[in-house]
Amino acid sequence: MNSFDAMIKRFGRDVSLHMKDGWTSGDYRAFLQPLRYKNKMYLEGVQTDIGYSDQSYYLYIGPVNHNLSALPQDAWIADSDNKKYSINKAEKVFLGNNALYIWAIVRSVEEADYEQSV
Prior knowledge:
This protein is mainly beta. The protein contains 2 helices and 7 strands.
């Protein structure tokens, strides 16, 4: 374990990866923090396959052994409060030839009750 992994494990929050077919990674630790905007032009939301997104974006930094960039588009992250996040973009960050961590931009998603809205 490198020192960056140790820092994530010590200071990160519990999250887990999920896919539509029922697969889950189980709990592990990662950093998940909101991205702040200079203006309020991102107030509208959009419907996604896993629920309603209010367009709240978050920065994710996690361990290399949970490679978000290798997951299919229908995968999502859940935090310890069962809040869901769709994965918009994910990349490995390298130091020389060694992958140091996974960097991602994720978006908050809320469950939608389709039967009540129809």
